């Protein structure tokens, strides 16, 4: 009769030992061999008439090994069910496991050792804390409003081609191509195209581009091409974050000048068609609400990121680090060397902590996503997509069938589910926190966003 014991070998880390005696596995071996002799189609024998000795000679050793491992696995599963073990991942063979050479002619007793990582019980101090967290409200200044108005005047303005760069408001259509240290084009090197106002370039490049004509070019290290205030977002648009130290040839393909639109009803209709904006006041009100909504979105993301980092770093959770590192190394389909595991472990544990915390909050607050919520969210997504391209609204039956089709796509449905449950999760968390609305300037807010998070180590 098999005996099973369990001992603690580290933090949330247990070893399960299964001792099998011959009587535990030999009946299964016999049963399997009989089944093969009954079912196998072996040349020279009628089906079901294969002598057991012949089956044993052909298949005995592999059946013997398979059945022993199967019985050990079944005993392990039974033990986990009986003890109601809450475990991470799957059990793995213990480091101390003996490597047996199974021999069907010499059946003996065997000992199998497995390691498991157990899920910890923990509390989340942040949710019961009285510490207040700031919810930032960005102050919209007259200067911000003015800058936005000028952008829209340019957007609504009339554009015409010109042959020389003469002002900060000229739009330059440029191509960028990588050069080697001798100033020659690199074959297969980095290439990009963009169009933007002269004022977005750095002062040095701006001065070089002034009075240049179509087809002229300059050379400059990519990192020094654009003004500091705009550089990050332009480089991101271009997808060239990894090319900052490359020297680029910047060729002017087209130059345009814009006549700013006059403020007034015609311009407002052009920017906001059908919105009935007929006074400067209405225009400015709408603009302020749009700017505020833009910054509120950024502030919401910052708050959620801050909550995420605080929860992950400040919730004391005992993680079975040693077990998880071994599991990452030997628990997958193929072996992963320990030095690779060490590199990836920090990121893995960070995500694992978040998973444990979010699972706990979802479970304790019984959060879920119902089918009609999925349908509603899918509908909003489709409508905003069509609205964005100015397409007319569809009839309901067409819309319904499109939504059902999208929700039948597992990837789409999973992403939508995750988005809704994450929104509910943060809504629940925020309701349990002491949040203080705090006014802040854009400069201070941007400095905050760009500052790396400082947190205690787990």
Walk me through what this model shows.
- The chain starts with a strand and ends in a 9-residue tail after the last helix.
- A hairpin with a 2-residue loop joins strand 1 (3-10) and strand 2.
- The strands form 3 sheets. Strands 6, 7, 8, 9 and 10 form a 5-stranded antiparallel sheet that branches. Strands 1-2-4-3 form a 4-stranded antiparallel sheet, with helices on both faces. Strands 5-11 form a two-stranded parallel sheet.
- Helix 1 (22-39) packs across helix 2, helix 9 (321-330) packs across helix 10 and helix 11 (371-388) packs across helix 13.
- The chain folds into 3 domains: 3-118, Alpha-Beta Plaits, CATH 3.30.70; 158-259, Chitinase A, domain 3; 280-449, Trigger factor, domain 2 (Orthogonal Bundle), CATH 1.10.3120.
- It is built from 14 helices and 11 strands.
- The longest helix is centred in the middle third of the chain and has 35 residues, at 280-314.
- It has 458 residues and is α+β, with helices and mostly antiparallel strands.
Provide tags for this entry.
458 residues; alpha+beta; Alpha-Beta Plaits; Chitinase A, domain 3; Trigger factor, domain 2; 3 domains; 5-stranded antiparallel β-sheet; 4-stranded antiparallel β-sheet; 14 helices; 11 strands; 49% helix; 19% strand; elongated
């Amino acid at each position: 009769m098999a005996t099973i014991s369990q001992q603690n070998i580290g933090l949330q880390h247990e070893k399960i030992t299964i001792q099998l005696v011959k009587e535990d596995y030999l009946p299964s071996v016999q049963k399997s061999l009989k089944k093969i002799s009954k079912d196998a189609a072996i040349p020279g024998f009628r089906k079901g008439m294969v002598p057991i000795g012949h089956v044993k000679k052909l298949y005995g050793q592999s059946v013997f090994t398979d059945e022993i491992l199967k019985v050990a696995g079944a005993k392990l599963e039974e033990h986990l069910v009986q003890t109601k073990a809450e475990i991470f991942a799957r059990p793995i063979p213990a480091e101390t496991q003996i490597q047996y050479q199974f021999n069907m002619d010499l059946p003996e007793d065997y000992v199998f050792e497995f390691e498991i990582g157990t899920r910890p019980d923990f509390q989340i101090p942040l949710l019961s804390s009285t510490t207040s967290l700031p919810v930032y409200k960005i102050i919209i200044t007259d200067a911000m409003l003015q800058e936005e108005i000028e952008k829209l005047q340019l957007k609504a303005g009339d554009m015409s081609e010109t042959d020389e760069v003469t002002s900060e408001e000229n739009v330059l259509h440029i191509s960028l191509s990588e050069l080697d240290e001798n100033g020659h084009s690199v074959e297969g090197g980095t290439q990009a195209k963009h169009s933007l106002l002269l004022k977005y370039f750095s002062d040095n490049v701006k001065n070089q581009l002034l009075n240049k004509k179509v087809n002229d070019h300059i050379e400059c290290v990519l990192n020094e091409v654009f003004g500091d205030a705009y550089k990050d977002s332009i480089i991101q648009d271009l997808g060239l974050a990894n090319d900052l130290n490359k020297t680029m040839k910047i060729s002017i393909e087209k130059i345009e000048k814009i006549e700013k639109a006059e403020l007034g009803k015609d311009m407002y209709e052009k920017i906001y068609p059908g919105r009935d904006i007929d006074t400067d006041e209405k225009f400015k009100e709408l603009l302020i609400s749009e700017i505020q909504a833009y910054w509120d979105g950024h502030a919401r993301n910052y708050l959620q990121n801050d909550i995420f980092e605080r929860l992950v770093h400040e919730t004391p959770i005992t993680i079975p680090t040693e077990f998880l590192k071994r599991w990452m190394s030997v628990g997958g389909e193929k072996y992963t060397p320990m030095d690779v595991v060490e590199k990836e472990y920090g990121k893995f544990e960070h995500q694992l902590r978040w998973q444990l915390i979010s699972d706990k909050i979802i479970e304790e607050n019984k959060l879920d996503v119902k089918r009609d919520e999925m349908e509603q969210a899918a509908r909003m997504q489709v409508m905003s997509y069509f609205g964005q391209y100015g397409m007319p609204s569809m009839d309901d039956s067409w819309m319904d069938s499109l939504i059902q089709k999208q929700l039948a796509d597992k990837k789409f449905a999973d992403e939508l589910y995750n988005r809704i449950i994450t929104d509910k999760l943060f809504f629940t968390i925020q309701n349990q926190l002491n949040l203080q609305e705090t006014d802040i300037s854009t400069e201070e807010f941007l400095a905050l966003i760009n500052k790396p998070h400082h947190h205690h180590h787990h």
